[in-house]
Specification:
Blueprint: H1 3-19, H2 26-29, H3 35-51, E1 56-62, H4 66-71, E2 78-83, E3 87-88, E4 93-94, E5 103-112, H5 123-129, E6 130-140, H6 157-162, E7 167-172, E8 188-193, E9 196-202, H7 210-223, E10 233-238, E11 243-244, E12 250-254, E13 260-265
Parallel strand pairs: 1-10, 3-7, 4-13
Antiparallel strand pairs: 1-2, 5-6, 5-10, 5-11, 6-7, 8-9, 8-12, 12-13
Helix pairs in contact: 1-3, 5-7
């Protein structure tokens, strides 16, 4: 893809976000596109949002579970950018017209207290740089059609990465924990939709350990000359399948002793 094509794809995705009208699959429009193209489109969206006055509050990691990697025929995670207008209070109600096709995932969030970067970042570095961990819900949305109506082709990982890894919002629970207060592999969640349990999972589903997910992110960012800044939020990856959230949905994620998170969709 050319730089002009990257810019056009980014502009189309931003227009879809603002209008609520999804665009067609970029992977159909540009069958030659690859991973670098997808991140270049995401970076063009990043620059446009900064120009609009948005600021970066953190990063998300996706496709960390084997099930999702197998489904998309990819063997590495992906990442996206968290902006300041994506944060929702615990227990808040999302306006009906805010998202196109919202879904949620349950995750463990890391909040940093010192910089984290470099291609040799270790587990020990992540532990030292973490201020606290907290239960979290990620709100997903897709500005790209999930399935092409004419061909039946589904989104590829390149479509998802271009679309800022499908990120749309973040909700942090009230609980705060030191990173060594629990074995994060065994931190899990019971996720309820409208009072009925939909999904369960454990932190070990995230690259065997959510800390390793943050290691991956820091190293990947280093290849692009980026680093994680103090005070930023890192969504380490979901350990449940996405839960659809049509209008009227109430979500309660019960992390047991780790805390809980709630969000509603008007």
């Amino acid at each position: 893809m050319t730089p002009a094509e990257h810019a056009k794809a980014a502009a189309d995705l931003l227009d879809a976000e603002h209008s609520g009208n999804q665009i067609g699959l970029l992977s159909l429009r540009h069958p030659e596109m690859g991973m670098d193209d997808a991140y270049k489109i995401q970076n063009a969206i990043y620059r446009a949002k900064l120009a609009e006055g948005r600021s970066v509050v953190g990063w998300k990691i996706g496709l960390t579970s084997k099930a999702m990697q197998y489904a998309l025929n990819i063997d590495i995670p992906d990442s996206g950018i968290l902006f300041d207008d994506m944060i929702f209070d615990n227990g808040a109600t999302v306006p009906a017209d805010r998202f196109i096709q919202p879904r949620i995932e349950a995750e463990i969030a890391f909040v940093t207290k010192s910089p984290l970067g470099g291609d040799n970042v270790s587990r020990e570095d992540v532990i030292a740089a973490t201020d606290y961990v907290a239960p979290a819900i990620e709100i997903l949305d897709t500005r790209i059609q999930r399935v092409d109506p004419e061909t039946g082709k589904t989104r590829t990982v390149f479509d998802t990465i271009s679309d800022n890894a499908a990120n749309a919002g973040i909700v942090l629970g009230a609980a705060r924990h030191k990173i060594d207060a629990a074995d994060l592999r065994w931190v899990g969640a019971l996720t309820f939709r409208n009072g009925e349990i939909e999904e369960t999972g454990l932190g070990a589903g995230v690259l065997n350990d959510p800390i390793e997910s943050v290691v991956w992110l820091a190293r990947r960012m280093a290849t692009y000359g980026q680093s994680i800044e103090p005070g930023q939020i890192i969504l380490s990856g979901s350990f449940i399948r996405p839960v659809e959230c049509p209008s009227g949905t109430e979500i309660h994620a019960d992390f047991g002793a780790f805390g809980s998170v709630d969000i509603r969709f008007a």
